[in-house]
Specification:
This protein is α/β, with parallel strands linked by helices. It has 9 helices and 16 strands. The protein starts with a helix and ends with a helix. Bound molecules: nickel (II) ion.
């Protein structure tokens, strides 16, 4: 049954891979998913939360708990360079984060579970969610619109591909596994002038450089070193010519934390440091700070259940402990509402000379090897959850 489902899943995944759509623009993808579900005999609901979402429910033959399984469906603004026969047909857009695999795996699981409905005690909700990649993201809209109600969802699960985990394996960790990704836009205003007479102006490049350095001392000198924190200035734009003092510098940064208290505190620390450095040079500034997705926290009991389901699917030795990472993931909105577990599906080709990370134009996903594992995991998980 898993083999048959995997054949279908690989076919679906390759169609999706050829037809990627950017966040909040997943019209064709959502229509495709809904069509597939209808062909399986589901009655999918679309457009929940005013975004291109699809939700379908498998009602079990007996009363019981309800489990939700979620896949994200959006792609990235990346020009694909894999050279695969099923590479993206849309210039500049690519499924470079494996969301095509997530969607296809969940569709294949929905297809395989359908004939088992009568035996299930409880329900399985399938959520296909758009716009994971671009805050405020699709998950928040779905949760607000009641995607976890009707039927009331008791627990929620999802998977993300991991190109550095060999295909055939799954990994999980309890507790905080992803960070809250917040962001800031900073404009530093100095005063222009001749590059040979810096004393006559206020050099926004020098002030900006000091700000970048000073921000790094927040973690090393103002925050408990046991607390995870990343502050990265990924963009710094200033100046027009080598011999002209820059009047303005524009900095864009990302801030990653795993504790709500520190998250609030760091915003204030950044304001203080920027303000102090700018004041020292006589520069002024404006700072826009935006809170992104919440911290993704996996529930202890649900992570245990996920591990058991994974072990039943692939054997204990293929179930690994996941390394938490300071990435952001809007699955956090579901996990904030209901206990859940977000795990990793190995998609690395064993023995491949080189592996590329997610968001890379050459990302390769061993779908034929990984798909049966993801499907078997979801089947085990759903049937376990709906038999207790
Ligand atoms: Ni992703």
């Amino acid at each position: 049954m898993v083999r048959d489902a995997a054949t279908y899943g690989v076919e679906v995944r390759r169609w999706l891979h050829r037809h990627p759509e950017l966040s909040f623009q997943e019209q064709e993808t959502a229509a495709f998913v809904a069509r597939q579900l209808r062909e399986m005999g589901y009655d999918p609901e679309t457009g929940i939360g005013g975004v291109y979402s699809v939700k379908a429910v498998l009602y079990g033959g007996r009363p019981g708990r309800t489990i939700a399984l979620r896949a994200d469906i959006d792609a990235l603004p990346i020009q694909e360079e894999t050279g695969l026969p099923y590479a993206s047909e849309t210039p500049g857009v690519m499924h470079a984060c494996g969301h095509d695999v997530h969607t296809a795996t969940l569709l294949a699981a929905a297809r395989a579970l359908k004939p088992m409905a009568a035996e299930l005690a409880g329900n399985v909700v399938f959520i296909f969610q758009p716009a994971e990649e671009v805050p405020p993201g699709g998950a928040r809209e779905l949760v607000r619109a009641g995607a976890l109600e009707d039927p009331h969802v008791d627990a929620v699960f999802g998977l993300h591909v991991d190109p550095f985990l060999p295909a055939g394996e799954l990994s999980f960790a309890a507790g905080p596994v992803n960070a809250a990704p917040d962001s800031f836009d900073l404009v530093i205003r100095g005063r222009g002038g001749h590059g040979a007479a810096p004393h006559q102006g206020i050099d926004a490049v020098v002030v900006g450089a000091q700000v970048v350095s000073a921000l790094q001392s927040i973690h090393s000198r103002m925050v408990n070193p046991f607390e995870p924190l990343v502050i990265t200035v990924g963009r710094f734009q200033a100046g027009t010519a080598r011999n002209v003092l820059a009047a303005e510098a524009r900095l864009e940064g990302t801030v990653r934390t795993t504790s709500p208290a520190l998250r609030e505190r760091v915003k204030g620390l950044i304001e203080r440091v920027v303000s102090g450095v700018c004041a020292a040079y006589g520069a002024t500034f404006s700072l826009d700070y935006t809170f992104g997705y919440p911290v993704l926290v996996n529930d202890l009991a649900m992570t245990e259940l996920a591990r058991e389901a994974a072990a039943a699917a692939v054997g204990t030795e293929a179930v690994r402990r996941a390394e938490p990472g300071m990435y952001g993931e809007d699955f956090a909105y579901y996990a904030q509402e209901r206990p859940g577990c977000f795990g990793n599906l190995g998609v690395g080709l064993p023995g491949a000379p080189q592996r590329y990370p997610a968001h890379h134009p050459k990302l390769f996903v061993a779908d034929e090897e990984a798909m049966p594992v993801g499907i078997a995991y979801y089947l085990n998980l759903a049937t376990r959850f709906c038999s207790e």
